[in-house]
Design a protein that fits this description.
Largest sheet: 5 strands, antiparallel
Strand content: 35-45%
Strand order of the largest sheet: 1-2-3-4-5
Distance between the termini: 41 Å
Number of strands: 9
């Protein structure tokens, strides 16, 4: 990593997104440490986190942690976490412009109700681990991710249910 400082504009981009959202949507903005202990765990923070919670409980919240790397770790909805940049090393060749664009697209998907999360647990314990997925839709297409969860985490996160689908709604203006 020869120039991690190239990602510093991500902090300003997130603050500008939060400002725009606060102006255009019925949302509660909070700032501080400890807004999302799980998101913040293990990160060296460069400043307080910013939380954006729409007044409609059917709309997904967003919490951004500003890292000293510099970069961002963002929680979309209940479970999905995303790092900006995803890696930051020279070999990955991520540009700050592309990371800001990716952040903006994901935020737009969330605020327009084009974001969903799902958690699945196996029917029987010996059938393996749980599965967590997220999907962001946009006019240009969709992007989905999935990851395995150990059985204990899947059970805790699902409240004991076998399947949890969260089809988040649009944010109120």
């Amino acid at each position: 990593m020869t120039d991690p400082e190239r990602f510093r504009p991500l902090h300003g981009a997130m603050l500008e997104i939060a400002r725009r959202i606060g102006r255009d949507f019925d949302v509660e903005r909070t700032e501080g440490y400890g807004l999302d202990g799980e998101l913040e765990r293990g990160l060296e923070l460069a400043g307080p986190c910013v939380g954006l919670r729409p007044k409609d409980p059917d709309a997904a919240p967003i919490v951004a942690a500003f890292t000293s790397f510099p970069g961002l770790h963002v929680r979309f909805g209940r479970w999905h976490r995303e790092a900006f940049p995803a890696c930051g090393c020279d070999a990955c060749d991520e540009s700050v412009e592309r990371q800001i664009e990716r952040l903006g697209q994901m935020v737009d998907s969330v605020i327009h109700g084009r974001f969903r999360e799902a958690l699945r647990r196996p029917v029987l314990p010996f059938m393996g681990s749980g599965w967590l997925e997220a999907e962001f839709e946009s006019p240009a297409g969709s992007r989905s991710t999935g990851s395995r969860l150990d059985r204990v985490s899947a059970r805790r996160m699902s409240g004991g249910r076998r399947r949890v689908d969260l089809n988040w709604g649009p944010w109120p203006r």
